[in-house]
From TrEMBL:
Entry annotated with the keyword Zinc: yes
Pathway entry: Protein modification; protein ubiquitination
Keywords: Metal-binding, Ubl conjugation pathway, Zinc, Zinc-finger
TAZ-type domain mapped to chain residues: 269-367
Gene Ontology BP terms: regulation of DNA-templated transcription; response to hormone; response to hydrogen peroxide; response to salicylic acid
InterPro entries: BT1/2/3/4/5, BTB/POZ_dom, SKP1/BTB/POZ_sf, TAZ_dom_sf, Znf_TAZ
Protein name per UniProt: BTB/POZ and TAZ domain-containing protein 3
Organism: Cinchona calisaya
GO MF terms, alphabetically ordered: calmodulin binding; zinc ion binding
A Pfam family annotated for this UniProt entry: BTB
């Protein structure tokens, strides 16, 4: 794959100074001078200030009905027709415009085609006076081949892929400056799909912003955020940092934002997992205390380590905890970690239990009574916990899918 010519001074300077328009010179010669007089810079009028702002893309102004859009999309130009227009351009038959590029190379073209293809070129051509039936316009500062590809596209929408790849950034700028949305679309698509790389993404982003291609800008930002470490050490980044510190700031903020969103998401997933585990623990506790577990309970039977637990995934864990709790010598709040955990689970149960008078879970009534004396702060904490557990459980819906056991 041919690499993009990123070292051309034009590209860097255009990124730094490109204000959405290219310099264009209209050759105004009244006498029947030879082409050589075109070189005379005094006779060249710079109309860059008069370049009108490109109109919005067709998508914004055309409110086609579905049917009309279908008709437009289904219009397939036969190859013969494209070839005909391509030949007309390449052979320059009866050309009445000379486009002068760097080193005074000339690309012959047709007034009427250029006027129809680009409103900006039309504006320039209308202002230029023909000399011996030929109008002259100069497009300086860009490689001849880039302008050749550009004008060819205006005739037939045809392009050579190698040439397109080589000049895609130039062509993106040309398409914007001369208001050729179809070419802009092709450049943006090819860049986005095939030619966006860590080495050029910063340059592409800057041009995409200046040429008003939001989708391409977004793709660039995504790529930068995804591979920030590599891209922030490229030459392109260093140049951008110097020339456009506000963009650097914007990109750094995007990286931080995406990172914190990711952290936030992970935190929420983890929180939800904990609340679901607590809900499972509550179910298992009720199941063990009410009916005793067929697999590992009732409490007086020896725990069989190897056996798979019953349909309550937290059953085995809770059973172990209950057994420890009943035999632990430090069975006080704030005692050993396991006992502390058991106390908390028992209290949580009591707070979620609606039938303390008939409940078989130990200490259910005790905690209900203790609640009356609790501080408002503790009370609020417990209420929040209870509501989070209920929300996590309800979020599962009627078809519960338990993945993790309580342990
Ligand atoms: Zn069980
Ligand atoms: Zn203990
Ligand atoms: Zn209870």
């Amino acid at each position: 794959m041919a690499s993009l010519d990123l070292d051309t001074p034009w590209l860097y300077s255009s990124i730094e100074s490109f204000d959405g328009s290219l310099n264009i010179h209209i050759e105004e010669v009244n006498s029947a001078d030879s082409l050589d007089s075109v070189d005379n810079s005094k006779s060249i009028v710079n109309y860059s200030r008069n370049i009108p702002k490109p109109p919005p893309l067709p998508a914004k102004i055309c409110q086609k009905t579905n049917n009309q859009r279908w008709l437009a999309d289904s219009c397939n130009v036969p190859k013969e027709t494209k070839d005909l227009w391509d030949r007309l351009f390449k052979e320059g038959f009866a050309a009445d415009v000379h486009i002068i590029t760097e080193n005074d190379s000339v690309i012959p073209a047709h007034y009427i085609v250029l006027c129809v293809a680009s409103p900006v070129l039309k504006n320039f051509l209308e202002q230029s006076k023909p000399r011996n039936g030929i109008r002259y316009i100069k497009i300086p500062g860009l490689p001849y081949n880039a302008i050749y590809v550009f004008i060819r596209f205006l005739y037939s929408s045809c392009y050579d892929e190698g040439e397109m790849e080589k000049f895609v950034l130039h062509l993106l700028v040309l398409s914007h400056s001369y208001s050729v949305p179809s070419l802009k679309k092709v450049c943006a698509h090819l860049l986005e799909q095939h030619w966006l790389m860590t080495e050029n993404v910063i340059d592409v982003l800057q041009l995409a912003k200046k040429c008003d291609v939001p989708r391409l800008s977004l793709s660039c930002v995504r790529m930068i955020v995804k591979d920030f470490k590599t891209i922030s050490s490229t030459e392109g980044w260093k140049v951008m940092k110097r020339a456009n510190p506000s963009l650097e700031q914007e990109l750094l903020e995007s990286v931080v934002e995406v990172d914190s969103r990711k952290q936030e998401r992970l935190k929420k997933i983890e929180e939800k997992r904990v609340y679901l585990q607590l809900d499972e623990a509550m179910e298992a506790l009720l199941h063990i205390c009410k009916e005793g577990c067929r697999t590992i309970g009732p409490c007086d039977k020896v725990l069989k380590e190897s056996q798979i637990s019953c349909s309550f995934p937290a059953c085995k864990g809770i059973e172990t905890l209950v057994r420890h709790f009943s035999s632990c010598k430090m069975r006080v709040p704030g005692g050993c970690t396991q006992c502390k955990r058991m106390w908390q689970l028992l209290e949580l149960h009591s707070r979620m239990c609606s039938e303390p008078d008939f409940c078989k879970v130990p200490l259910c009534r005790h905690f209900k009574e203790k609640m009356q004396q609790q501080s408002k702060k503790d009370e609020a904490k417990w209420k929040l916990l209870v509501s989070k557990v209920i929300t996590a459980k309800n979020a599962l819906g009627p078809f519960k899918l338990r993945r993790s056991g309580f342990s």
